[in-house]
């Protein structure tokens, strides 16, 4: 690389301007705010501190973005106004929960905290809107820790792709790499526990496409909701901070044949998370549909899509999935561009982010593995009227590792929390309601010796010794 390519570049930005850039795969850049105030997707930048692969008033950019420009047109005013409205809802909700009288002149104040569902088509910037709104909430100085819920199984959130998850976010979410769009979690290794990491709750769906098993999607969404509501019952501040739900693009658009599926999953979210505000990102038809269906009982708002959102194709998504799984085991360390000595990545010092997974040989009998839903299912239309297909869609099917074609080699497995210790509390479908405590990948199968090699974030416990397989695979 020549000198000029690595020399930092300086940008002077006017108020409310946005510096945007794209990076080639495998490259990195760092940004430093020299003077003034700026934010990266809602997270405030500190002057004089280099940040990785991120944004905004006079900034120095180290490294070489493949595309970069400054935009004067952004939807940030609309997003800021939304935040102000949500902030008022939080303050009123907390007042109500603590028993303060209603403000004078307001006989019937709205005292529900914001419980927001964000819908939009592919590449509309849904995840970014969630991040901005959460970052504004945690930055307001009120000590809010809103719940960020991810029901997009292709996103990965804090876990690996295939999971549905939720975490209370108390500190700003940084933006440094596509492998952790919601900040780094404490699930993969104890090293990150010391810093600003999140403890998410996750359930395993196991597939990228929500249509593949919508009965399971529905069930897991409702499980997340039950868990969240139980948890918030005893936590007034948590309740008042509200929650923000990121959804997959398949909830917003698709062929007419999928309308029923979409509507069912949107309803599952609205019920499970007691949604009171639906935000539709730049999609007129969906906005009308949501108004018609829910307008009488909750607030539906159409918000503008940012011109900065980048159209990402399926091959990019596949690369990100593989990168996310790699980062789950090995950590997510970005090599700083030339000229940058110290930097943080999402608030973490770089050494904290290197993980050392372990490779262990276990007996087939050490782990009981299930696949949810029979592999071959007749389409609903082929079933007799009234026949319950549901049974086969959420039926746990035992996977036999000694059978050729078990699909276990290179499979990502979700290790489940133990079953209820009290035999009397056990029930048939309990496996569907167990949350995930970690993930492993099967890297080798020895059928003759009945042993398999698994890669796991740390040595030892496979907790309840029950795992679920989905359709995600990963190879070094
Ligand atoms: N204002 C902006 N400036 C530059 N890049 C942006 C901006 N807003 C979003 N992006 C980028 O655009 C990409 C897509 O955004 P995002 O992931 O928020 O969309 P999405 O609707 O959630 O996508 P999906 O359909 O995959 O769920 C991301 O890489 C994000 O960083």
TrEMBL record:
MF terms (GO), sorted A to Z: ATP binding; polynucleotide 5'-hydroxyl-kinase activity
Binding-site residues for ATP, renumbered to this chain: 18, 123-128
Domain Clp1 N-terminal: residue ranges: 13-93
Segments crossing the lipid bilayer: none
GO cellular component, one term: mRNA cleavage factor complex
Compartments reported by the entry: Nucleus
UniProt keyword annotation of Ribosomal protein present: no
Residues of the Clp1 C-terminal domain: 355-476
Positions of the Clp1 P-loop domain: 120-331
Pfam family, one: CLP1_P
Source domain of life: Eukaryota
Known partners and oligomeric status: Component of a pre-mRNA cleavage factor complex. Interacts directly with PCF11.
Protein's name according to its UniProt entry: Polynucleotide 5'-hydroxyl-kinase GRC3
């Amino acid at each position: 690389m020549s000198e000029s390519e690595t020399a930092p570049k300086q940008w002077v930005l006017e108020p409310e301007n946005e510096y945007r850039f794209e990076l080639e795969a495998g490259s990195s850049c760092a940004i430093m705010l020299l003077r003034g105030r700026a934010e990266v997707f809602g997270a405030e930048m500190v002057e004089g501190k280099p940040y990785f692969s991120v944004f905004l008033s006079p900034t120095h950019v180290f490294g070489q973005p493949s595309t970069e420009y400054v935009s004067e047109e952004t939807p940030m005013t609309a997003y800021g106004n939304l935040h102000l409205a949500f902030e008022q809802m939080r303050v009123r909700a907390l007042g109500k929960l603590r028993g303060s009288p209603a403000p004078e002149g307001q006989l019937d104040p709205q005292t529900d905290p914001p419980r927001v569902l964000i819908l939009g088509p592919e590449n509309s910037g849904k995840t970014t809107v969630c991040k901005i709104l959460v970052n504004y909430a945690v930055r307001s100085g009120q000590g809010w820790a809103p719940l960020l819920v991810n029901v997009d199984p292709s996103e990965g959130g804090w876990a690996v792709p295939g999971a549905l998850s939720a975490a209370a976010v108390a500190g700003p979410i940084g933006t440094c790499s596509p492998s952790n769009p919601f900040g780094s979690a404490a699930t993969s290794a104890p090293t990150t526990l010391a810093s600003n990491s999140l403890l998410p709750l996750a359930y395993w769906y196991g597939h990228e496409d929500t249509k593949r098993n919508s009965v399971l999607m529905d069930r897991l969404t409702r499980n997340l909701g039950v868990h969240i509501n139980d948890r918030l019952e005893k936590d007034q501040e948590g309740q008042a901070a509200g929650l923000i739900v990121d959804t997959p693009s398949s909830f917003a658009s698709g062929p007419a044949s999928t309308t029923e599926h979409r509507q069912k999953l949107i309803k599952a979210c609205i019920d499970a998370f007691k949604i009171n505000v639906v935000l539709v990102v730049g999609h007129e038809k969906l906005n009308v549909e949501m108004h018609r269906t829910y307008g009488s009982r909750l607030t539906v708002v159409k918000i503008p899509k940012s011109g900065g959102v980048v159209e990402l194709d399926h091959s990019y998504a596949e690369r990100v999935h593989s990168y996310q799984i790699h980062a789950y085991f090995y950590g997510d360390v970005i090599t700083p561009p030339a000229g940058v000595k110290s930097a943080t990545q999402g608030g973490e010092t770089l050494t904290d982010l290197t993980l050392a997974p372990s490779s262990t040989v276990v007996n087939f009998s050490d782990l009981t593995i299930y696949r949810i839903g029979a592999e071959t299912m007749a389409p609903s239309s082929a079933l007799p009227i009234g026949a319950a297909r549901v049974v086969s869609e959420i039926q746990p099917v035992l996977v036999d590792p000694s059978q050729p074609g078990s699909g276990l080699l290179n499979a990502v497995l979700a290790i489940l929390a133990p079953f209820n210790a009290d035999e009397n509390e056990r029930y048939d479908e309990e496996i569907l309601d167990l949350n995930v405590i970690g993930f492993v990948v099967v890297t080798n199968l020895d059928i003759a010796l009945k042993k398999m090699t698994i890669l796991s974030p740390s040595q030892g416990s496979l907790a309840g010794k029950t795992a679920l397989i989905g359709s995600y695979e990963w190879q070094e």
